[in-house]
Design goal:
Blueprint: E1 14-19, E2 25-29, E3 33-39, E4 45-52, E5 61-66, E6 72-77, E7 82-87, E8 95-98, E9 108-113, E10 120-124
Antiparallel strand pairs: 1-2, 2-3, 3-4, 5-6, 6-7, 7-8, 9-10
C-alpha cells in the first residue's frame, strides 16, 4: 500500500468513499456535498464534479451510492433525508437534483441499490 494522492475538496469530515464502475471515486461529507474524483492526464486524482447542499438538511451526509450505470447518485443523511442527482451530461461533469422519496425521521445509516438499479433499500435508526 502506498499513497498516490491526498484528495482535498471537502470542507468538513469525509464520511464515505466509493469506487464507481467507471473507475471514478465518489466521496460524501459532513459539508453536505458529494465529490466525484477522476484521474487526469498526468495520473493525478482531481475533482471532476461537485454536487450538494440540496434542501434544508442542516447536518451532513452519512454516505452516497451511484446506480450501477452511474446515471444517478443518491446520498443519505443524519436527519433521515435522501438527496438524488441525475447525470445531465455524458462526461459526468453536470448533475441535476431530482425528487427523492421520504419516510425516515432518524439517521439513515446505510443504503444499497439492487443489482438491476430498480430498487433501493435503506436502514435507519428509526427502524422504519
Amino acid at each position: 500500500v502506498r499513497v498516490e494522492n491526498i484528495l482535498l475538496g471537502h470542507e468538513n469530515w469525509v464520511t464515505s468513499v466509493r469506487w464507481l464502475s467507471n473507475g471514478m471515486i465518489l466521496s460524501s461529507s459532513m459539508d453536505k456535498t458529494l465529490i466525484l474524483w477522476s484521474k487526469d492526464a498526468d495520473g493525478l486524482w482531481s475533482e471532476h464534479a461537485h454536487v450538494g447542499e440540496v434542501g434544508g438538511n442542516n447536518m451532513g451526509l452519512f454516505g452516497a451510492f451511484p446506480t450501477s450505470d452511474n446515471t444517478m447518485l443518491i446520498s443519505h443523511s443524519f436527519q433521515g433525508a435522501f438527496q438524488g442527482w441525475h447525470r445531465a451530461e455524458e462526461d459526468m461533469k453536470a448533475w441535476q437534483g431530482c425528487p427523492m422519496p421520504g419516510g425516515h425521521f432518524a439517521s439513515v445509516k446505510d443504503i444499497s441499490w439492487s443489482p438491476s438499479g430498480a430498487y433501493l433499500v435503506s436502514a435507519s435508526l428509526d427502524q422504519v
